[in-house]
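Working notes for the structural subgroup meeting. M.R. asked for a predicted model of this chain before we commit to crystallization trials. I am recording the input and output together here so anyone reviewing the notebook later can reproduce the run.

Input as submitted:
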Amino acid sequence: MQHKKDETVSELVEQFLAALAIRKPSPHTLQAYRRDLTAILRLVAEDPTTPLPLADLPITALTARSLRTAFAAFAGPRAVASVYRAWSTWNSFFRFLVADGVVAGNPMPAVGKPNPPLPSPKPLRGEDTPERLLDAVARDVRPQRDPWPERDLAVLALALCAGLRLSELLALRVDSVAGRPGERRVAVAGKGGRPRFVPVEPELDAVLAGYLDSRRRRFGARSVAGESVLFVDRRGEPLRRGGLQYLVDSCYRRAGITDRVPAGARLHALRHTFATRLAEDGASAAEIMRLLGHASLGTSQNYIEVTAGQQRAAVRSNRTNRSLGRVLAG
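Returned structure, recorded in C-alpha cell form:
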C-alpha cells in the first residue's frame, strides 16, 4: 500500500490500530496501544523544537532524538512496567511502518528501553484459602457426574506442595515419584528443558498413593504401570491442558473460593502460593529457585521482596502504630 507523503502520524496511528483490530484483540488492549502512542506523540509535539502541532505532526518528526526526549519525560512519573509497555507499543508501530514501506528503518533500538519488569506473584488470596480448597475437595459430598476426589486432590496437592506448573503436571509419569520412604522425590521435566527434583513429604505421598489406588480400582493394575502418564481423565486417557484447567476451576467452584483466585492465574495461583509460603517461612531465593525451577534468581528474589512488602504493610496498618503516631504528635 502506498502512502501519501503528507500523511500525518495521527493518520498512521489509526491505520496501525485498524491493522491490529483484524487480529481481534480485546478492547482494553487496543485502548492501551492508543494511550501509549498518544502520550508519546503529545510529548513530541510539546517539544519547543517541534515545528507543528500534534494534529499536523509528520512522520519525519519522529526521530531517535525526539523519541528519546519524549520517553525520558514519559518515564519520569511512571512505573517501569508502564514505560516498558509503551516502548513495546512504539516498537510494534514502527515495525508496522517499516513493513508498509512508510519509513526506511525502526528508530526504537536507539531509544533504549527499561528491563522488563518481573511479574508480580499471584497467590491465592486469604490466609486459610489453600487449606479450605484442599478440605473442600477431599470431603465434597455434593452430587457430581462420576466424581473422582482422589485424583482432584492429588493435582491440587502437587501444585500447592511441590509448585508444579500446568505443563509439568501433564508430563508426570507414574514413576516420576520415587525413592525410599522418607526420602521420596518427584522428578519434574521443567521449563526450558531444566529437570529438577522436589521433595515429597509423607502427607503428599499419602495423597498420591490414595490417587493411584483409586485409579487401580477404576481401570485395573495395568493402568498404573511405571511408564504410564500419572494423571488421566475419567475414561483413563491422558489428561490434557484444557481438562486440567477445567478440573482446577471446578475445584475452586466447589470450595466457594473463586473470588480469591487472582485474575488470569488459575492453576498458576497454586504454584505462586507454594512459592509465597516458602518465602514467608524463611526460604532463601536460591532455595526457591531450585524448588520452582526458575531460570533467574531475580524471579525467586521477587517472592521474598513482595512478601517483605506485604509484611511491612500489615505492620503499618496495625492500630497500635497509628496510636503511637498520635502520641508522638501530641
